[in-house]
C-alpha cells in the first residue's frame, strides 16, 4: 500500500526512481479513503508490479546498477532514526553558493545536498553572488525526509559609465549603446566589456563587474587621437617654435605632431613673442595660416611713447554706481542767529551719474531742537533741500560739489498756561559748497559717505545780516539698480 495525495489518485501508470530501485509501469489495483483524526482524508492505493519489470530490475541490480543515483548528494550530520533529513536542490545547480542552516554557514558545495538535523523547525538560506538570496522554513519530524527544490533567480546591478570629456558614445557588450553618462542594468558578478566608440579618441576597452543590487561607477578617460600640423610657417621665417615649452625647430616646419590641447609659441629676435593655445582632438591634419610676427618697438621708442600717452590719456571710465542713495546723520551749526549750540538730525539723498566726471545730487536734511524758557517751550524744526553737482576729481571717491539750497524753518511755542502761539515759518534761499568722500565696498554695492560743507543764505529779517551755516554728514551708501 502507498499513501498518496489527492492529485496523484488519477494517475494509473507511475514510475518510481530512487537511489536503489528503478521500477516502471506500476498498475493501480485498488484504493480507498480513510478519515484521519485531524479531520483530513488519507488516500491509500495498491499498485501491482508487472513481472517483466521485476525481472529487468533484478538483472540491473545484479550488474551493479543499484549504485546509480539521480545526482551526487552531499550529506551532513550523523544519520539517526531519531533525526530528520533535509534535502536541498537548486536550479541551476551552482558551485559556490553559501548555505546557512539555523544561522550557521555550511561549506560552499554543489547542490543537491542533504543535512541530518534534529526534529523541529529549521530555517535555511541560500545565497550566491549572482542570484537573489532565498530563505525558507521547514518542519522536520523524527525519521522524516523533506525535500526543497528551489529555483534561483538571477540578480542584477547598475553600471554607470562616465567619461572625460562627456557625451562620448560607449557600448556595453550585449546590453546596448549610449552616450556618457550612460546607465545600464547588467547581471550581478558577471564581467562585461565596455568599449568606447569615438572617432576622435584612441580605442578604449574596459571590463566592469557590479555587485548584486548595487551601483558601480566606471570613469573613462580616453586619450585623443594624435593629429598633425601640415605646415607651420611664420612671417618672417626662422622663428623658433616651442610646443608646450619643448623646442621643435625653426619655421617653416612640416607635419608637426600634436595631440589634444597644446600651446604653440613662436619667438624671433626683434619681434614680439607669439603664444596661443590650440585644440586638436581627433583631427588627422590641422591647417594653420601663416603667423605674422609683430615688430618689437625699441626700448627708447617705447619710453618716448609711453610717457606722453600716460599723461594725455583720459582717466579710465568711471565704475561708480549709476544711481545710489545716502542715509545718515546730519550735524549743522545753528540756523538761528541767537543760538550757538549745534543742531542734530538726519539726511536722505539720491545721486545719479551724468558722465565720468560728474553727477546730480538731491539732498533732504532735517534738524531740530527744543528750547525752554521761564514760562514757555519752543520747538524749532529746519529743513534743508540741497541740489548739487558733485565733480569727481581724481577717482570715484573724492569730489567737490557746488550747492543751491532752500531752507525752511518753523517755530512752535507753548506757554505754561497751555496757550499756544501761532507757528512762525520762514524760508530762505542760499548757495554753498561741499567736499565729499565716498568709500565703496569691493563690488560697489554699498559703502560709507562723508561730506562737509558751507551754506550762506539771504539776510535775516530780524538781524539784517546773512545767515551762514556749516554742516557735516556721515551716511551709508547703497547702490540702486533701476529697471
At a glance:
This protein is mainly β. It is built from 2 helices and 37 strands.
What are the main properties of this structure?
Immunoglobulin-like; eight-stranded antiparallel beta barrel; four-stranded mixed beta sheet; 37 strands; about 5% helix; about 55% strand; elongated
Write the layout of secondary structure elements.
Elements: E1 2-4, E2 16-17, E3 22-23, E4 27-35, E5 41-48, H1 51-62, E6 74-76, E7 84-91, E8 98-101, E9 104-106, E10 113-117, E11 120-128, E12 131-140, E13 145-151, E14 156-163, E15 169-172, E16 176-179, E17 182-187, E18 192-196, E19 205-208, E20 215-220, E21 227-232, E22 234-235, E23 240-243, E24 246-250, E25 253-258, E26 260-267, E27 274-280, E28 291-292, H2 299-312, E29 323-332, E30 343-353, E31 359-372, E32 376-388, E33 391-392, E34 398-415, E35 420-440, E36 446-459, E37 466-479
Explained architecture:
By secondary structure, the protein is mostly beta strands. The protein has five domains: 2-67, no CATH class; 74-151, Immunoglobulins (Immunoglobulin-like, Sandwich), CATH 2.60.40.10; 156-220, Sandwich (Immunoglobulin-like); 227-292, Immunoglobulin-like, CATH 2.60.40; 323-479, Porin (Beta Barrel), CATH 2.40.160. It has helices at 51-62, 299-312; strands at 2-4, 16-17, 22-23, 27-35, 41-48, 74-76, 84-91, 98-101, 104-106, 113-117, 120-128, 131-140, 145-151, 156-163, 169-172, 176-179, 182-187, 192-196, 205-208, 215-220, 227-232, 234-235, 240-243, 246-250, 253-258, 260-267, 274-280, 291-292, 323-332, 343-353, 359-372, 376-388, 391-392, 398-415, 420-440, 446-459, 466-479. The strands form ten sheets. Strands 29-30-31-32-34-35-36-37 form an eight-stranded antiparallel β-barrel. The longest helix is centred in the middle third of the chain and has 14 residues, at 299-312. Mean pLDDT is 78; it is low at 1-20, 66-73 and 301-316.
